[in-house]
UniProtKB/TrEMBL annotation:
Keywords: Glycosyltransferase, Transferase. Its EC number is 2.4.-.-. Transmembrane segments: none annotated. The keyword Transferase applies. The lineage of its organism: Bacteria, Bacillati, Actinomycetota, Actinomycetes, Micrococcales. One of its GO terms (molecular function) is glycosyltransferase activity. This is Glycosyltransferase. It is an enzyme of class 2 (transferase). The keyword Transferase applies. It comes from Georgenia faecalis.
């Protein structure tokens, strides 16, 4: 160990600050906790307490907000202050998803590795005096959540997804480590990751064995340590495409940081996984396992517990005591970090909901206005900074819910002098039990017959009924007609709409055989982004909706059909029958996707009675989370409607290549501009509304025409004016899972189609659609396919159209809903249906 860099073995406190950036929300923890403005006061409070060592992040997404352009002002100020005060920072270059927005696909993109290495070299060059560093915080945990569990961008899944992210990040991490070793030879590389332990019984024991092998995988691959293919998880990873990970250039680690929480230990049985484990082996044993495996100096680089200040005092006592036991056993431990110093935000949802809600875990608490609040835990932490041992700390009895969650550590703490928390610190638990019977207003539902053929239908959608006529309109209009024949109603519940109103007001409109419902909310200055169902102004949407729906019709509890997971909270206000989720898009990948969408989607997939998917790629992604009751129905076509375009088509002087659809981030605007330049003697006719992008970004040229939004009934006439139909989609996160409805519509109108290689188009229509990759290839294809004989194309198209008629699809979906259960008189809220 380099003298003066990390403390000698012993119990020395280390401070830490949370900084994670959430690309989808455009927010980081420094902004949410106001540390951006109060960093000097926060750091001085740590140093005044006598803590000299601290983990501190560098914000890559701010330092390099444009590729290759570095802004060091914030980092210079903070690191300069720490250096002047004699602090020992362990700088953290990438903390979870804290990377710049311009990276095309996050950790998975081909631009991540070169950009990361370039950034790492720039940091090392600018701050050659740094004593210690973490190049990439929690590589295993971060890439597992982002690449295996699909919880963080890029939302990859399974062992293959995990292998893809490891294959992108670890080689770059190895190159960056070599650079730092050369540029800062005296600085110490602190590798920090989760310290896990898994146990199980029955089939759970087998899974625990795999998980115990998996916990080491990132560090083993980086070090070239114990890469035997008979290891249970390493074998799985290699079989999933990770063979190239076996030959990485090994890097060097000076100190191993272990992040240990109560949920770091898992137990598995026939009912699944449980964390915290009811029988944890304890931190001292986990330290021993990692120490024996790697033989490296170590530190406990993170710990905390989500609880009241008195709970945190007792958890700190437990961790310190376990730390002291490990020291006595001879394991070299060089510091203990309670993380974070200031309570961070939104970790109760793993950052799925970026609401700025403080997480009660910090050394100092965070008030709603950002004020730092001292607690009895602050006092305990400062006592440890001054030399107190675990035995010097109070042993407060855990309060709810920690008393239940941490029951597993009771044997290890039976010798403690337990006492009640100070009276001022006691917070009585608030328990909310599900009602034993339906609310009085819905009591009549008890008398509804068990089997109902056609109950009312409540559709909850992120799309407006009166906007583009697409999958929801095609299906719901057909289902509405069928149910109306039996006396049932159909409601189409839309997202809130800003309006000149003083308070939220529900509006309705009868149109196309359904009742449109939307909530008008008071306008604000932030309405450039359309409000979602979780907008604070819409918190009473469910309550206001209930009188409109009524629930007193002859058909009892309605079926609830959702097009967006953001409608789950509204659905819970509907005492519904069957719950249907029609997954028509990967909404989480869209620009300005609502916060919390991923978490709600997982919940909805688990609880819906029936799930439909709108394309092959979507179907595969849904199957990662649910296997039963999932049915693939790619979008269809109303052939007779579009056939009229064939009769209307006539000769014209200039050829026309046309596009019909929404103009948003899914289109490759550069390709369209290039195509216009490549086809100066053609007209490019773009039909549809602009959404979620700046109209100034839409390409313009003398031969590009924009017709705006056109009614569905007028589309055949519009398409009659095309010679070639275009699908110039960008190949990005937003198009990875799309199955464009317009493919069959173009073909039914008798048009040749040129498309980029959207995965579902390639899979389903490669025989009838011409595929191209850029403007020049699109131009060549347009000139070629416009001369093709339509008869040959129609011969290939006929069986596809027969299978994909909207009438047929709607009928098949209705049959699946009926098969899901005829008992639609259930009185539990729709959001609580079981899958």
């Amino acid at each position: 160990m380099t003298s003066g860099v990390l403390p000698p073995p012993g119990l020395t406190l280390v401070a830490g600050f949370e900084s994670t950036y959430v690309p989808a929300a455009g927010l980081d923890a420094f902004d949410l906790t106001l540390h951006t403005a109060t960093w000097r006061e926060d750091l001085d409070a740590v140093l005044t307490a006598g803590v000299r060592h601290l983990r501190y992040p560098l914000l890559w997404h701010r330092i390099e907000s444009e590729p290759g352009v570095y802004d060091w002002r914030e980092a210079d100020a903070v690191l300069g202050h720490l250096r002047d005060r004699g602090a020992v920072p362990i700088v953290d270059l990438v903390h979870h998803t804290s990377y710049p927005d311009w990276l095309t696909d996050g950790f998975r993109g081909g631009d991540f590795g070169p950009a990361f290495v370039r950034y790492a070299e720039a940091v090392a060059t600018r701050y050659p005096w740094l004593p210690a560093y973490t190049l990439f915080n929690e590589p295993f945990a971060t890439l597992f959540l982002a690449g295996h569990e699909g919880l963080w961008p890029p939302y990859d899944k399974g062992d293959a997804g995990f292998a893809r992210l490891l294959g992108s990040v670890l080689p770059a991490l190895s190159r960056a480590a070599a650079l730092w070793r050369e540029l800062l030879p005296d600085a110490q590389h602190v590798w920090i990751d989760t310290a896990e332990h898994h146990t199980g019984v029955g089939p759970g024991a087998d899974y625990a064995a795999v998980a115990n092998d998996r916990r080491h995988i990132a560090l083993d691959l980086a070090l070239g340590h114990d890469l035997r293919l008979d290891r249970p998880y390493l074998r799985q990873l290699v079989e999933a495409g990770g063979e190239g990970l076996l030959t990485l250039e090994p890097l060097r680690v000076d100190v191993l940081g272990l992040d240990y929480y109560s949920h770091s230990e898992w137990f598995y049985d026939a009912e699944g996984g449980h964390a915290p484990s009811p029988g944890p082996v304890g931190l001292a044993e986990v330290i021993a396992q990692y120490g024996d495996r790697y033989g490296l100096p170590m530190m406990v680089s993170e710990t905390n517990v989500r609880g009241l200040p008195s709970d945190r005092v007792s958890w700190l006592r437990y961790v310190m005591e376990q730390y002291e036991v490990a020291l006595e056993r001879g394991y070299p431990l060089h510091g203990l970090c309670w993380f974070p110093q200031v309570s961070s935000c939104d970790w109760d949802t793993l950052l799925a909901l970026s609401r700025g809600r403080a997480d009660p875990v910090g050394v100092v608490d965070l008030a709603d206005d950002g004020t730092r609040t001292r607690t009895i835990f602050t006092e305990a932490w400062e006592a440890v900074a001054s030399g107190a041992t675990s035995a010097d700390l109070p042993a407060y009895r855990f309060q709810s819910p920690c008393d239940e969650q941490l029951v597993g550590i009771a044997p290890a703490t039976a010798h403690w002098p337990w006492r009640d928390p100070p009276p001022a610190e006691v917070v009585p638990p608030v328990r909310v039990d599900a009602p034993a019977a339906p609310p009085v207003a819905y009591a009549h539902l008890k008398e509804v017959p068990k089997t109902m053929a056609s109950p009312d239908l409540v559709v909850i959608s992120h799309l407006r009924w009166v906007w583009v006529w697409q999958r929801p309109q095609h299906l719901v209009s057909r289902l509405a007609r069928a149910r109306a024949a039996a006396g049932a109603r159909t409601f189409f519940v839309e997202e809130p709409a800003p309006a000149d109103v003083d308070r939220p007001t529900v509006r309705t409109e009868e149109v196309d055989g359904i009742t449109r419902v939307w909530l008008e909310v008071p306008r604000t200055d932030d309405d450039a982004v359309h409000p979602s169902f979780d907008d604070p102004r819409a918190r009473d949407y469910g309550r206001l909706l209930a009188p409109v729906l009524g629930y007193d019709g002859p058909d009892g509890a309605p079926d609830v059909w959702l097009y967006t997971p953001m409608g789950v909270d509204i659905a819970r206000s509907v005492p519904g029958g069957r719950v249907v989720y029609d997954v028509m898009d990967d909404l989480a990948s869209f620009r300005n996707a609502p916060r919390g969408l991923m978490l709600r989607q997982r919940n909805l997939l688990a609880k819906a009675d029936v799930v439909f998917t709108g394309g092959r790629s979507l179907h595969r992604s849904v199957l990662d989370h649910r296997r039963e009751g999932v049915h693939l129905f790619p979008s269809g076509v109303e052939s007779d409607h579009y056939a009229g375009a064939r009769a209307l088509r006539g000769a014209r002087e200039r050829k026309v290549a046309g596009y019909v659809g929404v103009i948003d981030e899914r289109l490759d605007l550069g390709l369209i501009a290039d195509l216009a330049a490549q086809l100066p003697d053609w007209t490019l006719r773009i039909v549809g509304p602009v959404a979620k992008i700046d109209e100034a970004d839409v390409p313009t040229a003398p031969n590009i025409e924009y017709l705006g939004l056109v009614r569905y009934n007028d589309l055949p006439e519009v398409m009659a004016g095309f010679d070639v139909a275009l699908m110039p989609f960008a190949l990005n996160e937003a198009t990875r899972s799309i199955s464009p409805t317009k493919t069959l519509e173009y073909l039914a109108a008798g048009l040749p189609v040129v498309s980029t290689r959207v995965p579902d188009v390639v899979a389903d229509y490669a025989t009838v659609v011409h595929l191209a990759d850029d403007g020049a290839a699109f131009a060549r294809a347009c000139r070629e396919v416009v001369e093709h004989d339509r008869t040959d194309r129609d011969a290939l198209l006929e069986p596809l159209l027969a299978l994909q008629e909207w009438d047929r699809i709607a009928c098949a979906m209705a049959e699946h809903i009926e098969a899901a259960g005829g008992s639609t008189g259930r009185t539990k809220p729709a959001g609580e249906a079981t899958g």
